[in-house]
Amino acid sequence: MKRFAVSTIAIVGASTAIVLAFNVLNSSSSAVDDTVVSEGGTAAQGSDALPESRLSGADAAGLSETLASVVETNQQMLDKLNAMDTRLSRLEEEKAEAEEQEQQARDQRELLSKAKKNPKLVNRYNDVMKQSREKRDELIGEQFDAEPIDREWSESAEERLVASFAENLQSQATLNDVECRSSMCRVELGLGGDIDSSSFMELELQLLSEMASGEGGQVQAHHWIEDDGVGGLRYITYATRSGQRLPSAADPFAGMTVEEAIEYLESQEDP
Prior knowledge:
- The chain is an alpha+beta fold and 271 residues long.
- It is 61% helix and 14% strand.
- The protein has two domains: 2-34 and 57-103; 120-240, Threonyl-tRNA Synthetase, Chain A, domain 2.
- Mean pLDDT is 74; it is low at 1-22 and 27-53.
- α4 packs antiparallel against α5 (197-212).
- It contains six helices and seven strands, in the order αβββαααββαββα.
């Protein structure tokens, strides 16, 4: 309503200027038409004598220019007001869209919070993610087995890893196997029963630093811990050569909303 009021005021103002200009023109013309010459040669209007009044050509041209300027100014103002009205309408639409998205985000967070408190959904989520990790384990292992061997790089990388672990492992773990090919290395460690999370993190960082030494670029690693079958644990990791990437399994929840993810989990069988 406010925008229309501004437009109306502007139009009325410009129209008033045009009306006033026409009134000046009409008044001047009337003065000329009503002026007569008396028998004595004196100009008079009605019974009262008036001075001679005529609208010269220059005055008429000036008035026409004024009227044209008023019309042009009025059109420019209308164009600006229309552009402003369009912009304000768009801002109102964007505000409404932002409020709708914010409300949707609040609904999604609330729904996710409720789902996290549901033990059955949490167990099913963990099971789905476990299957995804296992699938990635298979993909990485298959790529490693299919790779040709870059003799120069693989021998140098293996020597660095063996020397580093011999110096840093001590009693925390046993280096069972190291094998490098062309884009990654596979390392297998036997873990002692007394290794803690901080020591395990140190082993991981040591592995990555050795893989990155001497070359530029980032290093990726993927690992898991499994039962070695004789009462101990086996740590297996694949680390890439600098600048290389490990294959990834498809995200089981890619493109899903929270509602769709919950429906998907509800359709899964209990682990």
